[in-house]
């Protein structure tokens, strides 16, 4: 009886390992393209955790680019079932901190200028206020999307300058993918506006979107 129960437990464990991609497969079949994403609930937990980490590292705003970049790289490794220890996340944070903080500072300055233009346009102090306000909101959206794409393109070896330079080419090569990036930014804004405690989950979903968009393009 004891042996039978042990065999059943071992069989159930083998089935779980097979389904999640964390262990040997029970039968021959093509390798999963994203073995780390096989366990949906575990992936959901990882997305929430990385959203919290991105919020923690990016809480001073200027460090948001490096937080996003480290989170994107971590989630990419996790989905590919590669080494996804948190130590590697913090290693990426350290590697990208100097350049990422500079990019973040530049983004903050640009966002502040655009925000002032929007406020002045709404006050009626500027002629053509409606147009200026529309340009301001468009600029903020473009800044956020560009920051997200650059964070996804960042690599510790090539650095932030190369990542920023790659943004126009990434958009040009996959215009349809741009819609997903815009949707990711909109998701963060809308969820945070509706319920601020959802910000970590929204950031995690945005990170997941940046990981998924290039894979969709490569899989066509």
UniProtKB/TrEMBL annotation:
Task: Report TM segments.
Answer: 47-72, 93-114, 134-154, 198-214
Cite the record's Basic and acidic residues compositional bias ranges.
1-19
Q: Which domain of life is it from?
A: Bacteria
Keywords in alphabetical order, please. Answer: Membrane, Transmembrane, Transmembrane helix
Residue ranges of region Disordered?
1-25
Q: What is this protein called?
A: MoxR-like ATPase
């Amino acid at each position: 009886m004891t042996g039978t129960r042990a065999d059943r437990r071992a069989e159930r464990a083998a089935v779980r390992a097979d389904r999640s991609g964390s262990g040997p497969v029970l039968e021959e079949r093509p390798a999963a393209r994203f073995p780390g994403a096989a366990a949906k609930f575990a992936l959901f937990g990882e997305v929430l955790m990385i959203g919290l980490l991105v919020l923690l590292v990016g809480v001073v705003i200027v460090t948001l680019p490096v937080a996003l970049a480290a989170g994107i790289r971590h989630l990419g490794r996790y989905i590919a079932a590669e080494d996804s220890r948190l130590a590697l996340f913090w290693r990426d944070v350290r590697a990208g901190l100097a350049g990422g903080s500079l990019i973040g500072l530049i983004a903050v300055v640009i966002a502040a200028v655009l925000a002032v233009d929007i406020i002045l346009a709404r006050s009626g102090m500027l002629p053509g206020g409606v147009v200026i306000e529309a340009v301001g909101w468009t600029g903020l959206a473009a800044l956020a999307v560009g920051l997200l794409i650059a964070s996804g393109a960042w690599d510790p070896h090539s650095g932030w300058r190369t990542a920023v330079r790659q943004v126009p080419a990434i958009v040009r090569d996959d215009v349809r993918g741009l819609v997903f990036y815009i949707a990711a930014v909109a998701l963060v804004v809308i969820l945070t506006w509706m319920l601020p405690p959802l910000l970590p989950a929204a950031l995690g979903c945005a990170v997941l979107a940046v990981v998924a968009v290039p894979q969709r393009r490569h899989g066509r």
